[in-house]
Amino acid sequence: MAREQDMKQTRKKHGAAFKAKVALAAIKGDRTVAELASGYGVHPNQIYAWKKQLLDGATSVFDGGVATAEGTASEAQVDLLYRQIGQLKVENDLYEEFRVKQDTFLGSVTVPLLRPGLVTVAASRGETVRTGRRPPP
């Protein structure tokens, strides 16, 4: 029974401050990674991973102003793209609605296979789009 309890150990969750402290100690090089691992109670591979993560992210510390400007521009672009997706979805839904009406009433509403944007403009004005052409079957 004691053996089952040993096997059911939960993972330790280390905070960012602890990880930074251990990684900085590894970068200093005063002690070996094995000594740090036994001293802090973590696996040596974890220390190597934290050290690499700290070194890889070190340049972002000095890019603080640029990163926030890029983040704001990125958010604006995402917002614009979401608006365009919404507009295209509405146009597509209207286009599909007109195609169903066309198939149902064969001739009372004739909607050619136009771009969805043109059909949407006519629909928003309350106009019925009529042409002498029938769409291909």
User: What sequence of helices (H) and strands (E) makes up the elements?
Assistant: HHHHHH
Q: Which percent band covers the strand fraction?
A: under 5%
Distance between the termini: 73 Å
What is the helical fraction, as a range of percent? over 70%
Characterise the protein shown here.
Helices cover 71% and strands 0% of the residues. It has 137 residues and is mostly helical.
Quick description:
With 137 residues, the chain is an all-alpha fold. The chain has 6 helices and no strands. It is 71% helix and 0% strand.
SSE diagram, text form:
Layout: H1 2-7, H2 16-28, H3 33-40, H4 44-62, H5 64-105, H6 116-124
Helix pairs in contact: 2-4, 5-6
Q: What tags apply to this protein structure?
A:
single chain, 137 residues, mainly alpha, 6 helices, elongated
